[in-house]
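Shipment paperwork, digital attachment
Item: protein structure file
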Amino acid sequence: QVQLVESGGGLVHTGSSLKLSCTAYGRTFSSAAMGWFRQAPGKEREFVASIGGVGWSDDAKYADSVKGRFTISRELYKKMLYLQMVSLQPGDTAVYYCAASDGPMPQEAAGSYGYWGQGTQVTVSS
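Attachment content:
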């Protein structure tokens, strides 16, 4: 069974850092782009960052709201995806989801992703 499992969320203060991890089970997604999305209470799920698969793994996209603060990375053949977050703000509070696409190029649209994790909560207190 294919699963994406996120970890690393928590409650932190403004200005803190967190590193989220996503582990893939059941298959490798090395040829697929992977991404992070988030959903805050009462809001729609939004794109955070995406990184390409084999041949595109140096390509990454970021939402404007996280550029310069968040870094997406992956270990292609270890089935691991990461999101390093620094200078966290209360506006970053959300459930963060890991997702895997069907193609190798980084994607911003949630509809491009066919596999999703259950999410990990990140709460940033002021």
